[in-house]
């Protein structure tokens, strides 16, 4: 990266547009700009989770994911630039298998919650799903490759598994959904 930001407030966005990496500009309401914002927000929320006490391997994995998401932002921002590919998606698939194996079979739906770190991982799962939806909404001409979409899909699955893993790490159980609970309150 040869360009470094020395001026943060350029005022170039005052007209309601945002600059892309190739110098072109898009309206801030464009689907691609929404996708960039959601990927950036997801990365920021991962930073919040990483500020908590985590197992070293989980923190390392999340660090790798943050770098991937930053690369994904570059891919979204520079037309024709491709960074996120099948090897990135496979790495997430491997992590899902690794962390899911000791959890056992999930027989009930679970609610977001438990430990603070697990609850934050559930927030991340939701933000990743939103980022995936906004990436899917980007016209194919602006984002012809599948890497970002597939990556975000797997990442949301991994974050669900990590939420369960983080609860287990601190001795907390998953928060199970009680399907008949609302009916009990009515009676």
Automatic annotation (TrEMBL):
Keyword Cell membrane: no
Catalytic activity line of the entry: 2 cob(II)alamin + AH2 + 2 ATP = 2 adenosylcob(III)alamin + 2 triphosphate + A + 2 H(+)
A Pfam entry, by short name: Cob_adeno_trans
Record's keyword terms, sorted: ATP-binding, Cobalamin biosynthesis, Nucleotide-binding, Transferase
Domain (Cobalamin adenosyltransferase-like) ranges: 8-165
Presence of keyword Ribonucleoprotein: no
Alphabetical list of InterPro entries matching this protein: CblAdoTrfase-like (IPR016030), CblAdoTrfase-like_sf (IPR036451), PduO-typ (IPR029499)
Protein origin, superkingdom: Bacteria
EC number(s) recorded for this UniProt protein: 2.5.1.-
GO molecular function, one term: ATP binding
Any one Gene Ontology BP term: cobalamin biosynthetic process
Region listing for Disordered, in residue ranges: 1-24
Family: Belongs to the Cob(I)alamin adenosyltransferase family.
Protein name as annotated: Cobalamin adenosyltransferase
